[in-house]
Amino acid sequence: MSEFYSDKDLQREVTELQGKSATAARLFDIRRIIGGLFVVYGVIVTIAGFTASDADIDKAEGVNINLWTGVGMLLLGLFFLAWLKLRPAAPPPPGEEETVE
After folding, report:
1. pLDDT per residue over 45-82, tens digit each?
2. What pLDDT score does 94 carry?
3. Which of 42, 49, 55, 99 is within CB 3.0–4.6 Å of 66 for a Cys-Cys bond?
């Protein structure tokens, strides 16, 4: 049995696929992955910094390097996530593909 699509059905299907494509583009945005990883590792390293012993701090010449590195990683991860939130990636409009000359 052959099924025929009207222009309206075809347009609706194209719109649905474009919506799914935009969702996939936002889901796999590299800023989300990098930001999430830096936040997770930043939390882990910051906790290690809070629980550092005096011997660990003495090894680093009096600097709690885990604490400072963890805070830096947290800030960088939050920066990436804020950047993603403030400037979301939009897929290019359909039909506007770059041509190589």
Report:
1. 999 999 988 998 898 899 999 999 999 999 999 999 99
2. 60
3. 49
C-alpha pair distances (Å), 96 with each of 22, 91, 93: 15, 11, 6
Neighbour-count burial of 8, counting CB atoms closer than 10 A to its CB (0-12 exposed, 13-18 middle, 19+ buried):
exposed
- Encoded amino acid at 76, one letter: L
Two structure tokens written together for 91: 């897929």
Quick: pLDDT tens for 4-24.
Answer: 667 777 777 777 766 666 566
> Which two three-digit tokens encode residue 65?
């390097």
Distance CA 11, CA 7 (A): 6
Report the candidate in 38, 30, 24, 23 with the shortest Cα–Cα distance to residue 74: 38
